[in-house]
Specification:
125 residues, mainly beta
């Protein structure tokens, strides 16, 4: 079973940037689609982005399209989420998750089998 570990979160001012990393172990990431989700207390977990395995198809939620970029380096078993022009509304605990091959229904947390522990992103002046 794949294990996932997120890193790269922190405190950043509005308009700033962060790059999150999701490192996988225990299973080759090349066969897995990887999604990024975020959650704030009292709200449901929200799908942010997904990148497919062999097709590298990419999806974003509308609120981050044009600001966030997902990418993967299968040689390092790592997926990245570059986040630019951050706003207070991006403050959340960010998780990565995996499912087999494709990003179908990627916005549904129940579609993903394995999850990391999360990394906190706080956007504040």
């Amino acid at each position: 079973q794949v294990q996932l570990k997120e890193s790269g979160g922190g405190l950043v001012q509005p308009g700033g940037s962060l790059r999150l990393s999701c490192a996988a172990s225990g299973y080759p990431l090349v066969y897995l689609a990887v999604g990024w989700f975020r959650q704030v207390p009292g709200k449901e977990r929200e799908g942010v982005s997904c990148i497919g395995a062999t097709d590298n198809k990419i999806d974003y939620v509308d609120s981050v399209a044009g600001r966030f970029t997902i990418s993967r380096d299968n040689t390092k078993d790592t997926v990245y989420l570059q986040m630019n022009n951050l706003t207070a509304e991006d403050t959340a605990l960010y998780y990565c998750a995996t499912k087999a091959f494709y990003c179908g229904n990627w916005y549904l947390p129940t579609a993903f089998a394995s999850w990391g522990q999360g990394t906190q992103v706080t956007v504040s002046s």
